[in-house]
Amino acid sequence: MRILLVGSGGVGDAFARIAVRRPFFEQLVVADYDLARAERTVAAVDDPRVLAAQVDASSAQSVTDLARAHQVTHVMNAVDPRFVMPVFEGAFAAGADYLDMAMSLSQPHPEHPHRQTGVMLGDEQFAVATDWEAAGRLALVGMGVEPGLSDVFARYACDHLFSQVDELGTRDGSNLTVDGYEFAPSFSIWTTIEECLNPPVVWEADRGWFTTAPFSEPEVFDFPDGIGPVECVNVEHEEVLLMPRWLDAKRVTFKYGLGEEFIDVLRTLHKLGLDSTEPVRVGGVQVSPRDVVAACLPDPAGLGDRMHGKTCAGLWVTGTGTDGQPREVYLYHVVDNDWSMQEYGAQCVVWQTAVNPVVALELLATGAWSGSGVLGPEAFDAVPFLDLLRDGYGSPWGLREQTPGPAS
Amino acid sequence: MRILLVGSGGVGDAFARIAVRRPFFEQLVVADYDLARAERTVAAVDDPRVLAAQVDASSAQSVTDLARAHQVTHVMNAVDPRFVMPVFEGAFAAGADYLDMAMSLSQPHPEHPHRQTGVMLGDEQFAVATDWEAAGRLALVGMGVEPGLSDVFARYACDHLFSQVDELGTRDGSNLTVDGYEFAPSFSIWTTIEECLNPPVVWEADRGWFTTAPFSEPEVFDFPDGIGPVECVNVEHEEVLLMPRWLDAKRVTFKYGLGEEFIDVLRTLHKLGLDSTEPVRVGGVQVSPRDVVAACLPDPAGLGDRMHGKTCAGLWVTGTGTDGQPREVYLYHVVDNDWSMQEYGAQCVVWQTAVNPVVALELLATGAWSGSGVLGPEAFDAVPFLDLLRDGYGSPWGLREQTPGPAS
Predict the structure, then answer these.
(1) Where is each Saccharopine dehydrogenase-like C-terminal domain found (chains A, B) (predicted)?
(2) pLDDT category of residue B408 using cuts at 50, 70 and 90
(3) A189-197 and A289-296 are packed helices; what angle lies between their axes, rounded to 10 degrees?
(4) What is the set of domains in chain B, with CATH numbers?
(5) CB 3.0 to 4.6 Å from B38: which of A373, B32, B88, B358, for a disulfide?
(6) How many Cα atoms are found within 13 Å in the side-chain-facing hemisphere of B88?
(7) Under an 8 A CB cutoff, do B280 and A265 touch?
(8) Mean pLDDT of all residues belonging to chain B
């Protein structure tokens, strides 16, 4: 396996640090728009299989050229989701397989953005699924932690824990704090704005996909391992678009434990138009306000030393157990920042995102997973993934049985 | 009188619209960095005394050259306060008198920003006061509505209403709304951020000037003419620096009726570093985050058609009346947006700011006011100003007697 990693920001850098501990690949080309950043990652991992390159992720041709030059078998996309399509198309043109951790972007419904879907997450990618299938090539989409591990959990729950599923509800929360900053998101603010200010999408068996207003259906979810209760709200996320394509459930949701302060910041950015990606003229230059917001905040990848706490990704599932009784479980994966910093020099949120595509690539390298077309993680057997994550990468997952609440 | 108006944004444009109704000047050169903007103002006023020019307000030389070319007697500064010093210096070098509506900027105290003053508003201008005096030239500083009319009220109160003043407290509030915008400040957001996020300054006779944390000492002030109660907080403002130089009072304060939503927006901008004027690198360009915030919001000068309500500027004075009894008054000036739009095509906040320097220039032209050095409005007799504002410009002011509260 010869991998081209496009993007060596926080997640890309952690991807390289995790992958080099494993023997499953022959070459890893770490490419970034900023060559110096790629070189920093290469220097940090110090592995003869890894080399640095420059790439323009906004250009499919640039991705294709680089993939061909290094006879790449798999293109690993680790850049902002606005570059999904050029990297996805560049990989296909180079005859490589492809993985990403976020899917092509959505466009709200022009008239009823808070009720009906417009262009949905991943629509552009699924539109060409038959081309990938015909070419015998695999695009494994949404293969980070959320989407990614959450989708693996969903497949596991459907195969092994439930005879019938009412809700597949991804629930994400943390108790992270960052010393020395009044406000410092632990993940890309660009992506967080995109996720949180777009109309959230929900899937119901009898309605299909539909949208709501941002921050809808607030609920307090009690996260495990000492994190405790966090206020969660509906957020647009790939799981809701992926799970119903392969799994049976009555309802699929995604709720993010944003907390009150973060919601207030996002609402204010929106109110002032600072969430916009449309360039505005400032003096003699044109800039996207959202890029300026990102530039004003510290790089989340560099905050690991000042962070404390744990982050939890997981899937809350309700329905009927294999024994015919009502069942409710939370399948989850917690990473402690102290551990990921000490063990990998990566902060917990980016480490947790990056480990999952490494596991998936190892399963593809060994043949434990195989397929063609545009597929989500739930299209593959969950058991080898969860076993390898725990045994090969030292990162266990948990299952919490909960008392089923009253039927909604 | 030959006037060079530097800046034809909201206030500059309104200044020209107001001035052309009066005969006191021979020429008005409307200058802007953007010549087209100056030309729009000139076209709107349609007066042979008025012509357009291009100027770079960040360059004293540019101001001097233009002032000399038109044999200007008075330079009227109507640009953002960051350009006060070059315009002020450019006027002096050209041998012209000078007026502004905001003073040179402050710098917080490096160690105790919320207790001690650093560089104060106007310090740079007062530092060269003897040069202006020696040259027999006048710099009339802070001659808008606040500072400006508020300072005229203070002089009036000291001369005619009180034998001893406890507090001179400028209080500013409105009930303005803007149709079609979730958030649309009615005044320059650049200046509002500068005013509101700098540590507020307070003057007390036995302590001198000192600072507090932003948004300190919230109080609900009941504004007249149907505006009603608005939450006001301490804000850094020129009145506090000007009034104690010429008038006797135990305490001088400025409180702005920001309201809860606006305070929340300003706090969030600060938390994210978006209030900063220090350029950040975004892609290949450098921009100041605060300029980007301003670029994302609608130009307040263009909102007049969508605005409703009234704005009130005024001075709350407590102390001992001329009869020896405790007295408390609010001297105020209210402008209704419907009136200023219909009468002048200018929204009420910029109209209210712009009318005061026009009145002052007319008083200087007629000789009713004269002086040299760097002087605030309270250095001049208030009566001719208040009479001319009412009788010449059709804009009355009010006096509300209040029941004195318990001594603080």
Answers:
(1) 144-390
(2) very low
(3) 130
(4) 2-99 (3.40.50.720), 149-352+396-402 (3.30.360.10)
(5) B32
(6) 29
(7) no
(8) 95
Q: What φ, ψ does residue B76 adopt, rounded to 5°?
A: -105, 115
**Chain B positions in Cβ-Cβ contact with residue A268 (cut-off 8 Å):** 264-265, 268-269
The ipTM (two decimal places) reads 0.70
* Helix, coil or strand: residue B213: coil
Q: Does the pLDDT of residue A407 top 60, yes or no?
A: no
Task: Summarize chain B as % helix, strand, coil (round to 5).
Answer: 40, 25, 35
* Res B66 pLDDT > 60: yes
Q: CB distance from B213 to chain A under 8 Å? A: no
Amino acid at A383: V
Task: Give A38's contacts (C-beta < 8 A, 6+ positions apart).
Answer: A8, A30, A31, A32, A52, A53, A54
- A271:B296 CB<8 A: no
d(CA B30, CA B48): 12
Helices A348-366 and A10-19 sit at what angle, rounded to 10 degrees?
Answer: 50
pTM (predicted TM-score): 0.73
Structure confidence at residue B336 as a pLDDT band (50, 70, 90)? very high
With CA atoms as reference, report the closest residue to B30 among B22, B46, B21. Answer: B46
Selecting from B268, B283, B293 the residue whose C-beta is nearest the C-beta of A264 gives B268
Judge whether A26 is closer than 8 Å to chain B, CB to CB.
no
Indicate the average pLDDT of chain A. Answer: 95
Are residues A330 and A342 in contact, defined by beta-carbon separation less than 8 angstroms? Answer: no
Say which residue, B247 or A264, is predicted with more confidence.
Answer: B247
Q: What's the per-residue H, E or C state across chain A?
A: CEEEEECCCHHHHHHHHHHCCCCCCCEEEEEECCHHHHHHHHHHHCCCCEEEEECCCCCHHHHHHHHHHCCCCEEEECCCHHHHHHHHHHHHHCCCEEECCCCCCCECCCCCCCCCCCECCCHHHHCCHHHHHHCCCEEECCCEECCEHHHHHHHHHHHHHEEEEEEEEEEEEECCEECCCCCCCCCCHHHHHHHHHCCCEEEECCCEEEECCCCCCCEEEEECCCCEEEEEEECCCHHHHHHHHHCCCCEEEEEECCCHHHHHHHHHHHHCCCCCCCCEEECCEEECHHHHHHHHCCCHHHCHHHEECEEEEEEEEEEEECCCCEEEEEEEEEEEHHHHHHHHCCCHHHHHHHHHHHHHHHHHHHCCCCCCEEECHHHCCHHHHHHHHHHCCCCCCEEEEECCCCCC
Which residues in chain B are contacts of A287 at CB distance < 8 A?
Answer: 282-283, 285, 287, 292
- The length of chain A in residues reads 408
Tokens for B281?
A: 């690198």
Q: Which of B192, B269, B292, B293 to mutate to test the interface with A (most CBs of A within 10 A)?
A: B292
In Å, what is the CA distance from A375 to each residue of A90, A148, A155, A353?
18, 11, 13, 18
Rounded Cα distance between B53 and B75, Å, is 14
Residue with tokens 């994550």: A389
Phi-psi group of A148: left, alpha or beta (phi > 0 → left; psi -120 to 50 → alpha; rest → beta): left
Q: Assess whether pLDDT exceeds 80 at residue A408.
A: no
